[in-house]
């Protein structure tokens, strides 16, 4: 759907009017385009005491080929960057607010062990934030509090969450701010995640906290798990084809005929996957058209039909599948007193129970291969609840429970399970929402606008990436840092 307000306030006349009336002016977000460089500009590096992740950051900065500048808090960066052969310089306080805009701010807080050591966060962002350009990126790196050895360290690392989320709310201008906790030993598995958060692909993902766990064999670059025969551990970053990371993989996407599902299918195909799209028989024409464009395979099944899991398993059995995206979903909104049993049951069945049955069939038969990915589509309604959506919010909260409960069981096979929780995304589903509520949904977030289906699709592509093996059991909101459920 078209966001007429965003278009208007970004026209010359609209921008002047918005300025004179003091109206909010949502930024036109910079999204990924294959014909534009994904990474460019200058990245400023800051750090707290004894940063542990600078070496891994140097690999990343070298890999994406950008210039860096070191803030005074990150004195170690310059010699390290020189050793890695990177173009680097020093951030001068005089640059603050100047027209030479930075593209990203990266802060390594991993060595902070006590609340009294948090001040470098203030110093770095105080000096650099005004130099960050429109749609710039902020990433703070820390250690997962649960892995900290004492309460002081746990406290200081947990504090990073409040800091990063507040930055996301302050920065505006299409800037995102996210926190990545890297477990000790998971350093070699952080590149895919950092690339995502630095890229225009994460245009509508802000205020999120992601935890990267160490994999069996992380120190060795991956080794065979004797019990399951599955490959575990993160591959060295240099072994990924960053342009076509999903080449040779097969991905099944439910609800692929239109909306977010159609976009997921095209992004996964653009990254090299063979996509098998599933949708209800009445959407067959749209599904066929989408799959034809992508050279994919169309399967017209109602996922909630009792025979669907066996049919899907049979269709995928011969070649197996690597990525399963449970996107199909419906709403049947009514307050609980007015909700029919059928409206309750169909929403729970399509949005939640069908996924459980399909996963069971694919996992039991070994059709979902070791090292595979399961990605659910939850919703901020599943986090915060929503008036008139007891059925929908129950189903979407259930998706979160499924992710959290299944992740430990799938770990031995190297299979990750995660979910995205979209906020307000411009699709036919949200076009049905009454205008006043729709406008509130669009504006009540740090980006002051709704997201696009491609924002959800790109987040799913990151979770599907072979380099995201350390990301499991997590819920990533694609909501522009919505105030709802924040
Ligand atoms: N649009 C948003 O703002 C938003 C926000 C949060 C979550 N979501 C979730 O994202 C997902 C996609 O939403 P959308 O906005 O693209 O919706 P949509 O209605 O545009 O598309 C949903 C697709 O799922 C298919 N589908 C429905 N029931 C099915 C079944 N039984 N078997 C097979 N396919 C079936 C539909 O035919 C359709 O193609 C849903 O799970 C939705 O709950 C959307």
UniProtKB/TrEMBL annotation:
Pfam families: adh_short_C2. This is 3-oxoacyl-ACP reductase. The lineage of its organism: Bacteria, Pseudomonadati, Pseudomonadota, Betaproteobacteria, Burkholderiales. It comes from Paraburkholderia ginsengiterrae. SUPFAM superfamilies: NAD(P)-binding Rossmann-fold domains. One of its GO terms (molecular function) is oxidoreductase activity, acting on the CH-OH group of donors, NAD or NADP as acceptor. Gene3D superfamilies: NAD(P)-binding Rossmann-like Domain (3.40.50.720). Residues 251-428 form the Ketoreductase domain. InterPro entries: KR_dom, NAD(P)-bd_dom_sf, SDR_fam. Belongs to the short-chain dehydrogenases/reductases (SDR) family.
